From TrEMBL:
Keywords: Membrane, Transmembrane, Transmembrane helix. Its main location: membrane. This is Tetraspanin 13. It is a multi-pass membrane protein. The chain crosses the membrane at residues 12-40, 46-68, 75-100, 165-188. Pfam families: Tetraspanin. GO terms for biological process: regulation of calcium ion transmembrane transport. GO terms for molecular function: calcium channel regulator activity. InterPro entries: Tetraspanin/Peripherin. It comes from Myotis lucifugus.
Length: 204
């Protein structure tokens, strides 16, 4: 039997928003774990991850309440917000997958020059100093610098993983973008269905 009834649409929409809720809590938990164990000291990076997690949690909450109560206004705003998120996320995911090595290097260098705390984390964790070259007067927290051994630049080391990370992020983004367009379609269909338990003469 094809899943096209009111109860099936409601259950699918609730399940989708529960998935979004779990993902949002996972993002917030990873950010808290990273800063708690000293893996990430950049408040900007942690703040962005937590903000994305909270935003996704609020969207999921609106969708969940709207689905449970069959609330037309909440479902409408949920559908519009989810559509906008889909457009942005799909564009960013495609951009991540389309970047070549030269563009990846330029993007990494821009990020390197604009995030001092993240730069310190990278140098400490990867045991490297500088992006393409290192000035002895610059600050570097890598163990090779403190021990007096020669330090290699960070660009080649980061470059080994940049393509894999961007492909992974782009793939995950594409997967969730398709779940978002599925959510838009489910919400649109669910809004136009009548609750069989409601008064037939009531306006929905």
């Amino acid at each position: 039997m094809v899943c096209g009834g009111f109860a099936c649409s409601k259950n699918c929409l609730c399940a989708l928003n529960l998935l979004y809720t779990l993902v949002s809590l996972l993002l917030i938990g990873i950010a808290a774990w990273g800063i708690g164990f000293g893996l990430i000291s950049s408040l900007r990076v942690v703040g962005v991850v937590i903000a994305v997690g909270i935003f996704l949690f609020l969207i999921a909450l609106v969708g969940l309440i709207g689905a449970v109560k069959h609330h037309q206004v909440l479902l409408f705003f949920y559908m519009i917000i989810l559509l906008l998120v889909f457009i942005v996320q799909f564009s960013v995911s495609c951009a991540c997958l389309a970047l070549n090595e030269e563009q990846q290097g330029q993007l990494l260098e821009v990020g390197w020059n604009n995030t001092a705390s993240a730069r310190d984390d990278i140098q400490r964790n990867l045991n490297c100093c500088g992006f393409r070259s290192f000035n002895a007067n610059d600050t570097c927290l890598a163990s090779c610098k403190t021990s007096g051994h020669p330090c290699s630049p960070c660009a080649p080391i980061i470059g080994k993983y940049a393509g894999e990370v961007l492909s992974f992020v782009g793939g995950i983004g594409l997967f969730f973008s398709f779940t978002e367009i599925l959510g838009v379609w489910l919400t649109y269909r669910y809004r136009n269905q009548k609750d069989p338990r409601a008064n037939p003469s009531a306006f929905l």
